[in-house]
Amino acid sequence: MKKSIISLMGTLAMMLLASCGSPSTGSWVSYSGDRQVERRVDSVLQLMTLEEKIGQMTQFSANWSITGPVMSDDFKPYLEKGLIGSIFNATSVEGIRRMQQIAVDSTRLGIPILFGQDVIHGYKTIFPIPLAEACSWDLEMMRRTAEIAAIEAASDGINWTFAPMVDIGRDARWGRVMEGAGEDPYLGSRVAEARVAGFQGGVDGKALVEVHTLLATGKHLAAYGAAEAGRDYHTAELSEHTLRNVYLPPYEAAAKAGVGTFMASFNEINGVPATGDRWLMTDILRGEWGFRGFVVSDYTGVNELVPHGFAEDEQHAAELAVHAGIDMDMTGATFIKNLTQSVEEGKVPEQTIDNAARRILEMKFLLGLFDDPYRYLNEERARKNSMTPEFMETARKAVAASVVLLKNEDNLLPIPKETEATLALVGPLMNDSINLNGEWAGLGDRNKSVPILKGLTEKYKDSAVKLIYAEGSSIDETTPARIAEAVSAARRADIVVAAVGESYHWSGEAAVRTDIRLPEAQRQLLGALKETGKPIVLVNLSGRPLDLSREEEEMDAILQAWFPGTQGGHGIADVIAGDYNPSARLVMSFPRNVGQLPIYYNRKNTGRPVDLNDERVDYKSNYLDSSITPLYPFGYGLSYTTYVISDLALDKSSMKAVDDRITVTATVQNSGEREGEMVVQLYVRDLVGSVTRPVKELKGFQKIALKAGESRQVTFELRAEDLAFYGIDMKKKTEPGNFTLWVAQSSDDNGNEATFSIE
Predict the structure, then answer these.
(1) Where are the domains of the chain?
(2) Regarding beta strands 465-470 and 86-88, do their DSSP bridges make them parallel or antiparallel, or are they unpaired?
(3) CA neighbours within 13 Å on the CB side: how many for 93?
C-alpha cells in the first residue's frame, strides 16, 4: 500500500508541476484552487488518519551531537509513526537522509519530511546582513545572493528557509533590524520580491522545479518591528491605518510574489497575539491577499499564547492558533498533543485540520519530494556547490556595494595603492574574523571569514602604502598600555584606519540595546587617537544604526560596513583603496541619540510643525536638547565622485485617480572625476488626505552607473495606484488633491521639486 501511495503522489507531483506553466502573475502557487488538484490531494488525505494529518502540521527541531546528527527522544517516536511534517536545524546530507528514510520507509504512508533551516543571508558563503544588502538598492544582486544561498542549502538537503524577514524597522534598539530592509514600505516591498524570487527560483514565473530551490517564508506577520521600546517580543500598539499603510505592504508584496509560506510574529497587535489573530492570518492574508501557501508559527509561538494571557492552557492555545489560520506548529508540540482531543470534543472541525494538512502536502508536491524524497541529497553536489570561486566573487562585490560612506572630509578616502603613506590599522575589529558574519549566519565558518587586516594587507602588497597594526582595545575592554600601543602606531603613520563596532551577539533575536553608542573602551581608544592629530578613517561594523554623533564630529571619514560576511575584509579593502566607488545609501535613519528613537523619514507633519531652519521656537513639535532630524537620513550616502540632478519635468500636471499615470524625467550628471553609481530616488508628498499623510514617501528608485562627466536622463512612471492608501473609511484608494514630487539623492534632498494634482 505504501509504495502505491508514493507512486500516486509522485505522479501527482509531476502533473502539478506541468500544470503550473508560467503563470502571468509569476506566482508558482497560482495552481492552488484547481479542482483537479484538490481532488487528488483529497484522495491522499482520505488515506490518512486524523493523527497523521495533525502530524503533518507538526515541526520539531533536530539536536546534533559533536560527532553527528542525533534525534532527540522528544520527537523520535513521532518520526517513527509518521507524525512529523517538518524538521529544522538538521544540517548534513547524511543526517537528513537518515531521517527521511525513516519517514519514507518505516511509516505507514511514507510521507516525506520537509527540512527547514534559517538561511537568512547565506548558508556557507555568508553575504552581508540583509540590512546591509538593502543599502545597495541593487535588487538583482539581492536576488542572486538569495539564489546562491538556496543552491548551497539545497545541496545539503535543506528545502525550506525562514526568510526573508520583511518587517519594517524604525527603531535601532531592536536587534532584528539586521534581518530586514529598513524603514520604508516601498523599498521593503521591492526587496521582499527580489529575495523571494532568489530563494524560490521564481524569475520569469518559473515553478519550484529546480533542485536548488528553497521554499521561502515571509516573516514575521505582522508588525514585529513595531514592538514598544524596541524590546523583542513586546506589544505593538498601532492604529489600523499605520498597520496597513506602513507595516503590511512588504508582507503583501511577498504574498503577491508567490512566497510559499508565512511565519506568524511573536508580538501582539492591539491586544491580540499574532499567532491567535484570525483577522491577520485568515481575513487579510488569505481573504484579501489570496495567499494559498501555509502558515507556520514562530518557535513555541503557540505555547506562548498562555503566558500572553490569551489562552487558558496549551490545548486552548492550539485551538485558538488553528482557528486563526496557523497550519504548522514550530517545536511546541501543542497540535500533536492536543488537537485530536479538540476534534473529538467538537472544538475544532476536522475540515480545519484537512485544510492545513492539504496546504503542507501541496508544498511538498511542488518541491518534488513525493516524486523523489532524496532529490536534494547528494554529497558530491554539496561539495561542489559550497563556497565556489564564483560565490566568493559575488560575496565580495556584495560587501563593497553595501558599505555606506557617511563622511569623507577633505577627500581623505580613497587611499589608492600609489599613495606614499603609512597606515596605522587599529581597533578591535581590524583583525577579527569571528564577528564578521553577524548573527543568523547559517553554517558559515567564522574562521574562514576574511578579516579587514588581511584584506588590506593583500590589497596593498607590493604597493607604496605601508601598514602598521596595533589592536588598541577589545570590543568592550582596554587598558592604558593597549591604547598607548595604538597611539604609538598612529604617531608613526600618516593616516589611521580604525575598525570598531559591535559584537555580533549584540544584534539579532533577543539582542536589544538601550545604549547604541560605541562601547566606552572603543570611545577611549578613538579619543586617544584623535589627540595625535592624525586623520582617522573610521570603519564601523554593526547590525543596526548606531549613535555616531561624537564620531561624526571627531573622525575625518566614516564607512558604515555593517556585518559584511565571508568576504568582508576584501570588499572593505576594495572600497578603501578606491577599486570600488561606494554607492550604498542608508535604508534606516541614524539617530543623533537614543532619545530620538523611533526615527524615520516618512514622519507626519503634526499641527505644530518644526521649522528645520529654526528648531528652537517654543510650542512646536521639537526637542529642547536636539534636532528632530536624524544624524544621517534615509537614502543618504556619499561617493568618491559627485552628482547633480537637474531638468526635472512632468509630462502633464494632473492625472485621473484611476488607471492613469504621469511620466517624470530628470537629468543626472556625474559632475566629478571618477566613475560611480548613483541611486536616484523619487519621493512624493500628498498635501491633504482624509487621514494625515507623511511629509515624504518613496515611490521609485533607479541605480545607474555614470562615467566621469557623463549625463543621463532617468524616467519614472508614477501611476495613480502608486498613490493609493487606506483613508478615513479604511478602503485603499487614490484620493484627489495636490501633490509635491522630488527626484533626489536622499530623503532630505529638496533641490528638485515639482507639483501635480489628481482629479
Answers:
(1) 1-117+349-389, 126-258, 266-343, 410-578, 643-758
(2) unpaired
(3) 14
Q: pLDDT-derived band of residue 211, with 50, 70 and 90 as boundaries?
A: low
Please, which residues have CB within 8 angstroms of residue 382's CB and are 6 or more apart in sequence? 93, 155, 156
Distance (Å, whole) CA 226 – CA 659: 33
Tally of helices (H runs) and strands (E runs) in the chain: 21, 28
- Count of beta carbons in the 10 Å neighbourhood of residue 612: 11
Beta bridge partners of 703: 679
- pLDDT tens per residue across span 525-576: 999 999 999 999 999 999 999 999 999 999 999 999 999 999 999 999 999 9
Nearest to 180 by CA among 118, 225, 210, 241: 225
Short-list 657, 686, 516, CA closest to 591: 516
Rounded Cα distance between 56 and 111, Å, is 9
Which residues carry out catalysis? 298
pLDDT in tens, 397-424: 999 999 999 999 999 999 999 999 999 9
* SS3 of residue 227 by DSSP: coil
Strand order across the beta sheet in which 261-264 lies: 217-221, 261-264, 294-296
Core vs surface per residue 72-98: b (16+ CB within 10 A) or e: eeebeebbeebbbbbbbebbbbebbbe
CA distances in angstroms from 558 to 146, 407, 458, 537, 745, listed in the order given: 28, 5, 22, 6, 19
Q: Are strands 737-744 and 676-686 parallel, antiparallel or unpaired?
A: antiparallel
Per CATH, 126-258 and 410-578 having the same topology is answered: no
Assigned superfamily of 410-578: Glycoside hydrolase family 3 C-terminal domain (3.40.50.1700)
Taking the domain 126-258, which CATH number applies? 3.20.20.300
Burial class (CB in 10 A: 0-12, 13-18, 19+), 322: buried
pLDDT at site 49: 96
Output the CA torsion 16→22→23→24 (10° steps): 180
Question: In sequence order, what are the residues at sequence separation of 6 or more whose Cβ sits closer than 8 angstroms to the Cβ of residue 462?
Answer: none
What are the phi and psi torsion angles at 501 (to 5°)?
Answer: 145, -155
Check whether the bond before 220 is cis (ω within 30° of 0): yes
- For residue 71, is pLDDT > 70? no
Return the amino acid letter for 328: M
What is the rounded CA–CA span in Å between residue 130 and residue 219? 13
User: Is the pLDDT at 40 greater than 90, yes or no?
Assistant: no
Q: Rounded to whole angstroms, how far apart are CA atoms 324 and 697?
A: 33
Percent of the chain clearing pLDDT 70 (strictly above): 92
b/e per residue 432-441 (b: at least 16 CB within 10 A) = bbebbbbbbb
Identity at 571, one-letter amino acid code: G
Tell me the CATH architecture of domain 643-758. Answer: Sandwich (2.60)
CA-to-CA separations, 157 to 151, 276, 376, 392, in angstroms, rounded:
10, 32, 5, 22
